[in-house]
Specification:
The complex is a heterodimer of chains A (220) and B (199). Chain A is α+β, with helices and mostly antiparallel strands and 220 residues long. Chain A has seven helices and five strands, in the order αααααββαβαββ. Chain A starts with 27 loop residues before the first helix and ends with a strand. The mean pLDDT of chain A is 94. Chain B has 199 residues and is α/β, with parallel strands linked by helices. Chain B has two domains: 33 residues, no CATH class; 139 residues, Nitrile hydratase alpha /Thiocyanate hydrolase gamma (Nitrile Hydratase, Chain A, Alpha-Beta Complex), CATH 3.90.330.10. In chain B, strands 1-4 form a two-stranded parallel ribbon. In chain B, helix 3 crosses helix 4. In chain B, 49% of the residues are buried. The chains are: A alpha+beta (220), B alpha/beta (199). Chains A and B meet through helix 1, helix 2, helix 4, helix 5 and helix 7 of A and helix 1, helix 2, helix 7, helix 8 and helix 9 of B.
């Protein structure tokens, strides 16, 4: 989708602001969001559904909120859609904690999950066909505007590039994010001249690499 | 808009606690899950895995070759299983910098938690289109004759920069060197520098 998350090349966000001596987490709730993500990703939703859950945030809220709020918003949306945590149930419980911020999150004797080993997902899959492009081949990206999830950023659509490396065969996010299966494809590191992407505004002597799935590419 | 330190609404904190309590009740979240995340990323001592691999690569040309050509095997030397890292080497002729314009992909297992600026719109929007200006804001001026390669992490591959060894690196051992390899250098927005006057 052509959403607010697709930021490459946009103007107006100002200088990069850095935080001196930034701690790993600014508050406990950030770590709790990470823990919630790790407990539910893989079992309730996949990585592509997770990213698309965030992409569907209200655009104004996306820009005004922090990274871990993005995660929270996306996870809550997916848990509701998957029937795991009802949106009204979450809202009611949120109000309870809002009125009693110091209430414990768990009461003794409640059912508790046993610790599961962390599942480290891999997107690599065995290919069913040889790669369609050779290293060094000239390609052009397709001009796509799917309403759903895609990993071809706006700034790199309809652009000429060169296959720089073969990255293996991987799950296709455009289908995996929508329950349409993994449909693995070959992925390539595609090299673009900055001038092809940004025209006369390009900085000198610069190239951009993107990892792109085969169906995003056409022979040039 | 897109500021790096948004004021977190108390409502957000309440919502996280609510989700945490509901998932605990449903048996989907282990009671110690949050503490374990904090322990992993806050209590972890010593340099990150990526920093140790870089320091070893500077000391050992055979290891450097493996890190660049077969990173899973090179990371395996540290007892870590990670199958998708691509290491890109800085040289006098080329500087590399990593971004994820679509979300904030970053090799957590190799480089720890990403800094907040890496995840904010200013960096994600500009790193691909005006990297020299962005790097200059970090205090890194790359002359025009030195090429810049930007790696936009659009798939499940993850990128780490192998910085150039700093002057004086040959005087230090691997463990001493690793301490000076910063997260910023591994992203490509800084060079590695040793403190003045040796170590």
């Amino acid at each position: 989708m052509d959403g607010i998350h697709d930021l490459g090349g946009m103007h107006g966000f100002g200088p990069v602001e850095r935080e001196d001596n930034e701690p790993p987490f600014h508050a406990r709730w950030e770590a709790a969001v990470v823990a919630i993500m790790r407990a539910t990703r893989g079992s309730v939703y996949n990585i592509d559904e997770f990213r698309h859950g965030i992409e569907r945030m209200d655009p104004a809220h996306y820009l005004a909120s922090s990274y871990f709020e993005h995660w929270l918003d996306g996870i809550a949306r997916l848990l509701a859609e998957k029937g795991v945590v009802d949106a009204a149930e979450l809202e009611a419980r949120t109000q309870q904690f809002h009125e009693r911020p110091d209430a414990p999150v768990a009461t003794p004797g409640e059912a508790t999950a046993t610790r599961r080993p962390r599942i480290v997902e891999t997107s690599f899959r065995a290919p069913s066909a040889p790669p369609g492009f050779a290293v060094g081949a000239a390609v052009r990206t397709r001009t796509l505007h799917p309403a759903g999830h895609t990993r071809l950023p706006r700034y790199a659509r309809g652009k000429r590039g060169v296959i720089d490396a073969h990255r293996g065969c991987h799950v296709f996010p455009d289908t995996a994010a929508h329950g349409l299966g993994e449909q693995p494809q070959h992925v390539y590191s595609v090299r673009f001249e900055a001038r092809e992407l940004w025209g006369e505004a390009a900085e000198p002597n610069q190239r951009v690499h993107l990892d792109l799935w085969e169906s995003y590419l056409l022979p040039a | 808009m897109g500021k790096s330190h948004p004021n977190v609404d108390a409502y957000v904190v309440s919502r996280v606690r609510a989700l945490e309590s509901l998932l605990l009740e449903k048996g989907l979240l282990a009671p110690d899950a949050v503490d374990r995340v904090i322990q992993r990323y806050e209590a972890g001592t010593g340099p990150m895995l990526g920093a140790r691999a870089v320091a070893r690569a500077w000391r050992d040309p055979a290891y450097k070759h493996r890190l660049l050509q077969d990173s899973p095997a090179a990371l395996g030397d540290f007892g870590v299983s990670y199958d998708r890292l691509v290491v890109v080497e800085n040289t006098p002729a080329r500087h590399n910098v990593v971004v994820c314009t679509l979300c904030s992909c970053y090799p957590w297992d190799v480089m720890g938690l990403p800094p907040t600026w890496y995840k904010m719109p200013a960096y994600r929007s500009r790193a691909v289109s005006e990297p020299r200006k962005v790097l200059a804001e970090f205090g890194l001026v790359v002359p025009p004759e030195r090429e810049i390669r930007v790696w936009d992490s659009s798939a499940e591959l993850r990128y780490m920069v192998l910085p150039m060894a700093p002057a004086g690196a040959e005087r230090l051992g691997e463990d001493e060197l690793a301490v000076h390899v910063t997260r910023e250098a591994l992203i490509g927005v800084a060079e590695v520098q040793l403190p003045e006057g040796g170590h």
